[in-house]
Design a protein that fits this description.
Helix content is about 55%, strand content about 0%. The protein is built from 9 helices and no strands. It binds fe (ii) ion. Fe (ii) ion binds next to α4.
Length: about 180
């Protein structure tokens, strides 16, 4: 049975989605990528990442609060418009936008720092690390990084031939 707390623990994530700074950058990004043939950064992508990460959170008993996962997923690529327009790497741009958005959505300074650090690590490669054994660093890092990759259906992508992602970064099947 759903607990009342389950129904409310994504309120802060909803506040991120409705935040004017978030909406401004989100809409700019949608316009900029409207005709992009490669991976786009839509709400569907952000929610795919959140939901995949939360499945693993439950499956592996990682204990990451649901709205922290959703915050990281919603925000991890939000700086991409600044990468396109100003050349700022999008992980850095997204992390700095967290500082403008998250305090007004009810997140504590410690939670904001946690999400920023996960975003700054989400493009990195962590050979050998796993969701279970990445406890030396925050498991949110690996959860976000892997969910971001897993969310892309490379095996069914019409632009796969032109894509510059290396083979080891691509998803080659539904459950690979
Ligand atoms: Fe992403």
């Amino acid at each position: 049975m759903m607990r009342e707390s389950d129904m409310h623990d994504t309120d802060r994530a909803d506040r991120i989605w409705r935040h004017p700074v978030y909406q401004e950058h989100f809409l700019q990004l949608q316009k900029a990528e409207h005709t992009r043939e490669f991976c786009r950064h839509t709400l569907a992508h952000f929610l795919d990442v959140a939901r995949i990460a939360h499945i693993w959170n439950l499956e592996y008993g990682l204990g990451i609060p649901k709205d922290i996962l959703y915050a990281a997923a919603l925000l991890h690529d939000i700086g991409r418009y600044l990468q396109l327009s100003e050349g700022i790497p999008h992980d850095q741009a997204s992390a700095s936008l967290c500082a403008r958005i998250m305090p007004e959505c009810g997140f504590t300074p410690e939670e904001i720092l946690r999400v920023q650090n996960a975003i700054l690590h989400h493009r990195g490669h962590s050979p050998g690390s796993s969701l279970e054994t990445s406890a030396s660093q925050d498991p949110l890092f690996e959860c976000l990084r892997r969910a971001d990759k897993r969310s892309r259906n490379c095996f069914d992508c019409p632009a796969a031939r032109e894509c510059n992602w290396p083979a080891d970064r691509r998803m080659h099947g539904i459950c690979t």
